[in-house]
Amino acid sequence: MYKTTPDVIFVFGFRTHFGGGKATGFGMIYDSLDYAKKNEPKHRLARHGLYEKKKTSRKHRKERKNRMNEESQGDCKSQRWCWQKEGVKILQWLYLW
């Protein structure tokens, strides 16, 4: 049907139908591999072996996580849960009226 090579065809989103024997999905056929690398998401490129994520070491990830937690321990505005507590105080104040 289309005169192309399999490396520029990307299929995804397949769903099987009850009873078996039939499945539907989506497919993208690109003109060249350069267009595919530019337009396809990274996770689909990784399935074809065209993209590999740079993975840091486990120790480095843990140190970065702990460093970020230490930096946000300072004031209340930098912590996620603080605005919820402030909102609760405001609601309690409104109920007093």
From TrEMBL:
Coiled coil: none annotated. Residues 51-73 are annotated as: Disordered. Residues 55-65 have a biased composition (Basic residues). One of its GO terms (molecular function) is structural constituent of ribosome. Keywords: Ribonucleoprotein, Ribosomal protein. InterPro entries: eRP_eS24_sf (IPR053709), Ribosomal_eS24 (IPR001976), Ribosomal_eS24_CS (IPR018098), Ribosomal_uL23/eL15/eS24_sf (IPR012678). Pfam families: Ribosomal_S24e. One of its GO terms (cellular component) is ribosomal subunit. One of its GO terms (biological process) is translation. PANTHER family: 40S RIBOSOMAL PROTEIN S24 (PTHR10496). Belongs to the eukaryotic ribosomal protein eS24 family. This is 40S ribosomal protein S24.
